[in-house]
Amino acid sequence: MERKIRLVYFSQATRDMNLSDLKDILTAARENNREKDICGMLCYDNRYFVQALEGERGVVNDLFFHIADDPRHTDVVIASYEYIENTTFTNWNMGYASSTPVFVELLAKLKQTTFEPAKLTPKQTYALLRHLSAHQDDI
Ligand code: FAD
User: Fold this and answer.
1) Which of 38, 40, 109, 127 has its CA 20 to 30 A from that of 62?
2) Dist. CA 26 → ligand 1 center (Å)
3) Ligand 1: centre distance to CA 132 (Å)
4) Helix, strand or coil for residue 54?
5) What does each of the 139 residues of the chain score in pLDDT, given as a tens digit?
């Protein structure tokens, strides 16, 4: 069995995403990721996506390139890529959070007023997703 990795990237939505758009993405993600034994967390705010993908290296790599090709987003940047012993987002094939009071509070702690993932360090980006995984939107 290949070693596990965590890949975190951010990207810019090519248009404003409404609830139905996000539901479409999450429905496909949850179905496919379950089959591939991938877990993770997706966050959308201020027209940016941030996503963590955890699973076997080759499977995550293939999925990442597939996702990066999706015309619903652009300017995809890998924030971090690392080997992991244990997955963090085990309970979610794909968890989800958007702007909530908790999100705003977390951003303020990172000295940010608006969500701009390029301004966060890789550590901060991962920490944000980890904290948000405990405060998810139910979609
Ligand atoms: P199809 O649904 O037939 O898609 C074919 C291609 O069309 C896809 O590659 C996609 O690029 C494009 N497409 C699909 N729906 C739309 C649409 N509504 N508007 C424009 N283009 C569209 N998939 C996962 O499996 N796991 C994930 O974790 C995951 N995370 C994602 C995160 C983001 C930010 C985005 C934008 C997409 C994500 N997706 C994820 C969706 C992924 O890009 C594919 O749409 C999905 O995997 C289905 O692809 P498919 O080739 O099987 O099928």
Assistant:
1) 127
2) 9
3) 23
4) strand
5) 789 999 999 999 999 999 999 999 999 999 999 999 999 999 999 999 999 999 999 999 999 999 999 999 999 999 999 999 999 998 888 999 998 889 999 999 999 989 999 999 999 999 999 999 998 888 8
Ligand 1 centroid to Cα of residue 60, in Å, is: 15
Whole-structure pTM value = 0.95
Domains of the chain, CATH where assigned: 4-132 (3.30.70.100)
Ligand 1 atom closest to the CA of 36, numbered from 1? 25
- Nearest protein Cα to ligand 1, atom 40: 29
For residues 7-32, one letter each, b for 16 or more C-beta atoms within 10 angstroms of the residue's C-beta and e for the rest, the string is bbbbbebeeebeeeebeebbeebeee
Ligand 1 atom closest to Cα of 49?
A: 34
Would you list the DSSP string of 94-132?
SEEEES-HHHHHHHHHTT-SS--GGGS-HHHHHHHHHHH
